[in-house]
């Protein structure tokens, strides 16, 4: 991942799109509080939905989508036109068409990707904390052909370093300090830091900094369906 505002995952040059069925993502809120779920891709597609405890929102994403994410927003208030603001994960409106602002725990994915001869018609998935953490998350497949299961369920907010603590979450160091060490400008590489090691120690299968490729990328056959659970 080249920066805290780009996706963390798996992109190789000359990826080709493959025609396939759209993927469904069942987004479930198991938190004791209301969240405003959101999804968006790099093509200005997306949406949002208010979810009380136990409610589910099903999102359909086009086949061949190269970069997209699902996340929870907290502390939101919207007017009758769907415009408003959230404490975490804010995109400025109920139905997001752009990515949210940190801190937000991210389920990231690319669908039906191809790079012969290395792979054909593969989905790539991860959970990322590069933009910080706001709610615990479980991201798994619901298809028998794939056993992918990624979790970040630790008490990250409760254990958050004091310099990263913000209302409703644990922010990322790039947002707080705005230095190349933490932000990994495009075209550069970066190393683990004290803060990234904190995130990694609590959620070892999630991205902890832009160049974290240690057991963070997961793959399923194209056409797989998924479930994203907040506060599993």
UniProtKB/TrEMBL annotation:
Superkingdom, natural source: Eukaryota
Pfam families in the cross-refs: Thaumatin
PROSITE patterns reported in the protein's UniProt record: THAUMATIN_2 (PS51367)
Keywords associated with the record: Disulfide bond, Signal
Cited SMART domains: THN
Disulfide bonds: 31-231, 76-86, 91-96, 152-203, 160-170, 174-183, 184-190
Endpoints of the signal sequence: 1-22
Similarity comment text for this entry: Belongs to the thaumatin family.
Protein name as annotated: Thaumatin-like protein 1
Organism: Phoenix dactylifera
Chain's gene name: LOC103709831
């Amino acid at each position: 991942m080249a920066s805290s505002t780009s996706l963390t995952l798996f992109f190789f040059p000359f990826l080709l799109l493959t025609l396939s069925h759209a993927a469904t993502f069942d987004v479930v809120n198991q938190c004791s509080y209301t969240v405003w779920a959101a999804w968006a891709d790099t093509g200005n597609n997306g949406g949002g939905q208010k979810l009380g405890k136990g409610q589910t929102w099903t999102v359909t994403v086009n086949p061949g989508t190269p970069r997209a994410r699902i996340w929870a927003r907290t502390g939101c208030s919207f007017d009758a036109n769907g415009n408003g603001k959230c404490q975490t994960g804010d995109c400025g409106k109920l139905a997001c068409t752009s990515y949210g602002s940190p801190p937000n725990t991210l389920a990231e994915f690319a669908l039906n990707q191809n790079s012969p001869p290395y792979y054909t018609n593969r989905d790539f998935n991860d959970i990322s904390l590069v933009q910080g953490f706001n709610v615990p998350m479980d991201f798994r497949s619901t298809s028998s052909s794939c056993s992918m299961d990624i979790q970040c369920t630790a008490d990250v907010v409760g254990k958050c370093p004091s310099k990263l603590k913000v209302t409703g979450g644990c922010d990322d160091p790039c947002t707080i300090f705005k230095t190349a060490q933490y932000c990994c400008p495009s075209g550069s590489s970066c190393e683990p830091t004290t803060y990234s090691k904190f995130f990694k120690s609590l959620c070892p299968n999630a991205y902890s900094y832009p160049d974290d490729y240690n057991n963070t990328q997961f793959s399923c056959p194209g056409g797989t369906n998924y479930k994203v659970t907040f506060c599993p």
